[in-house]
Amino acid sequence: MKSIAIMGASGHCKVVADIALLNGYDDIVFIDKNPEIDMLGEYPVADEDTDLDYYLQHHYDFVVGIGDGKIRRKVQEHLEEMGADIVTLIHPAATVAYDVTIGEGTVIMAGAVINPGTAIGKGCIINTSASVDHDNVIGDYVHVSVGSHTAGTVKVGDNCWLGIGSIVSNNIDLCEDVFLCAGTVVVKNIEKPGKYAGVPARFVPF
């Protein structure tokens, strides 16, 4: 039996659970702080405050199913401190080149394409039908959203969020903590953290 505990109990977590099932896990549990939720779909939801130690002691694999990158980082780093076995999940319908390196806790979803020479950091989400082209460097806790695309030789800093349908042109660097709104097209380096939108991308004050 392969056992996995998924941190969180949201819609995104259900997608992660489906990928875990397709990776051969037959014992799946969600762990969340909301005591009012005891089931998510067909899987049980355990209470983080009372039950986390049980799953650590019984050597479950762990992955964080939380979409918010800052929270995902906090939860994964806490698990690392506790000695959890954090795994990477790749949907069988994703295409990942032979030499791609992928950090612990990253989840790659159906239809995603990651091309040769690319390095993906820890705790990332490469979402449905996203593509990451050759020789990219994707930092830790990055979310490449549904249908987003990065061209060749792109660098994406830690904690970035590439919104649905966003595009990053080739040879572009994004600094840490960049948020691209849906449909944004980046054609120049972004050196200032913050929110960007439009074609081409422009800084959007909060």
Give a description of the structure.
There is one protein chain. This protein is α/β, with parallel strands linked by helices and 206 residues long. It folds into 2 domains: 3-87, 3-Layer(aba) Sandwich (Rossmann fold); 90-204, UDP N-Acetylglucosamine Acyltransferase, domain 1, CATH 2.160.10.10. The protein contains 3 helices and 25 strands. It has an 8-stranded mixed sheet, with helices on one face. Helix 1 links the parallel strand 1 (3-7) and strand 2.
Summarize the structure.
With 206 residues, the protein is an alpha/beta fold. The protein has helices at 11-22, 48-57, 69-81, and strands spanning 3-7, 27-32, 39-40, 43-47, 61-64, 85-86, 89-90, 95-96, 101-102, 107-108, 113-114, 119-120, 125-126, 131-132, 137-138, 143-144, 149-150, 155-156, 161-162, 167-168, 173-174, 178-180, 185-186, 194-197, 202-204. It has an eight-stranded mixed sheet, covered by helices on one side. Strands 3-4-2-1-5-6 form a six-stranded mixed sheet.
Spatial strand arrangement across the major sheet: 7-10-13-16-19-22-24-25
CATH class assignment of the largest domain: Mainly Beta
Query: Rg, please?
Result: 17 Å
**Fold-level CATH name of the largest domain:** UDP N-Acetylglucosamine Acyltransferase, domain 1
What's the number of domains? 2
Number of helices: 3
Beta-strand content bin:
25-35%
Strands, count: 25
Structural class: alpha/beta
Architecture of the largest domain, CATH level 2?
3 Solenoid
Full CATH superfamily name of the largest domain: Hexapeptide repeat proteins
Gross geometry: globular
Largest sheet: 8 strands, mixed
Residues in helix, %: 10-25%
User: What is the first-to-last residue Cα distance?
Assistant: 48 Å
- Would you tell me the overall average pLDDT? 96
Element string (H = helix, E = strand):
EHEEEHEHEEEEEEEEEEEEEEEEEEEE
- The residue ranges in which pLDDT falls below 50 over 5 or more consecutive positions are none
Oligomer: single chain
